[in-house]
Structure formats: C-alpha cells, structure tokens
Amino acid sequence: MKTVFVTGASAGFGAAITRRFVAEGARVVAAARSADKLAALASELGEAVLPVVLDVQDAEAVTSVIGALPGEWGQVDVLVNNAGLAKGLEPAHRAQLADWDQMIATNVTGLVHVTRALLPGMVERGSGHVINIGSIAGTYPYPGGNVYGATKAFVHQFSLNLRSDLHGTGVRVTNVEPGMVGGTDFSKVRFDGDEAKAGNVYAGTTPLTAEDIAESVHWASAQPPHVNVNVIEIMPVVQSSAALQIYRE
Ligand code: 8X3
C-alpha cells in the first residue's frame, strides 16, 4: 500500500488529491493548518487518512511532525507539495508587502521545509516521488502576478534542480503547473474574501476543476518506476496565451 503525504490537504486541490489517492487504495497523511477541516475530511475518508495539523512555514513543526509519523505512515512514497496561495493582484508598486511575505513563506519556504524533511527517507529507501504544485504563472508573466508568479518560477526550477540532485537515487520529481481552476478558494483568498471579484474570474468560462489537477498528480505518480514526468502544464480549453502588451504614448 502506497503512503502519500499531501500538504494543504484540507480544501481545494489538496482535498481532491487526498480523495484521489484514497480511491486507489493509498493511505494519505493529510497535512493542513485547519484542524476542523481536516477532521471533516478524515471522517469522510476514514482510516485511510491520517490528519496532521501542520503549518509548513514552521520548520521545527515540520521536522517534529514528520519525525513522529507512526510506522508505515512515515515511509512516504509520494509527497504532494500542494500548500500555497496567491494574495493580491495589484501592480508591484501598490502591492502589500505582507502579501508578498505570506506567499514566499508558504509557496517557497514551506515547500522546501517539507521536501527537505521527507527526502532523506526516500533516498534511503531508493524510491519516492516529490510532486510539486506549480502554476502557469511561473512561466507566463501577467499584470499583478509579480511575487505569486515568481514563487511558482522558484517551484519550477527547484523541481528541475531536485531531479539533478536525486540522479541515480530512484526518487522522482514532477512539477504540475495548472492554469485557471475554478471551484476552489484560490481567487477568494487572492481577493481577500471578496466573493464577487473572485466569481468574476470564472464568469462565462469552463475552468479546470480541482479533480482535474488531482487526476494529473495521480497520473504522474502512477507511471512505471522507470518513468519520470518532469512537468505537466495544464490549462482549460478556454485559456490560452495572448499578445505582449505595447504601451503607446
Ligand atoms: C493559478 C493560475 O493563472 O491564476 O496558479 O495564476 S493563475
């Protein structure tokens, strides 16, 4: 039975990814900050889920929680670094510094904390898979994407560099880079709880769903052991690139 460790597991992509792995018969360590939401997920999914209250920004908590995982729950085969967020869509000169700090602390610092804590066990066992949740925002710049996109560019390059470091260990690394996904709190969080603004992002479209992302994550993990899916870039059909902007006097 596979052991999967999912961060940000209490909602959105994380909950969908947890459900997807439980459906295939895996056991899932579901880590998130919200004890209440985790408890609801655990009671929905039963004994296949071990809920763990964890703030990935806290390096000491990450080390002690991972060190205390009981028995096979601690032999993590697949780490899904999903915890992350976007805050704000203002241009850089008007953005809130606190928003930038929060994105860096979760999307970058938190992700490396959990990765660093789980990698030695994977290397020792000669197998494992780190699946990061990146974003198309790490590749395609857009107005207001500033620090959010930069954190996801970090996740992209960190994923590729991990592959180099893990050469010959049998440990796999994948970066899943979604475009527009509806039905999660992503935009609500980005716009500080403003439901109307968040709803406008998806109005008149058929965006991806959290289940689509969970399917990609699961697919990458289900490839034979000799296959490493480096990057999955996934957008809804309604989303594509546009021309570069030109400022005219
Ligand atoms: C989410 C995709 O386009 O809203 O990471 O930045 S986007």
UniProtKB/TrEMBL annotation:
Keywords: Oxidoreductase. PROSITE patterns: ADH_SHORT. GO terms for molecular function: oxidoreductase activity, acting on the CH-OH group of donors, NAD or NADP as acceptor. It holds the Pfam family adh_short. It comes from the Bacteria. InterPro entries: NAD(P)-bd_dom_sf (IPR036291), Sc_DH/Rdtase_CS (IPR020904), SDR_fam (IPR002347). The keyword Oxidoreductase applies. The keyword Lipoprotein does not apply. Belongs to the short-chain dehydrogenases/reductases (SDR) family. This is 3-hydroxy acid dehydrogenase / malonic semialdehyde reductase. It comes from Amycolatopsis saalfeldensis. The lineage of its organism: Bacteria, Bacillati, Actinomycetota, Actinomycetes, Pseudonocardiales.
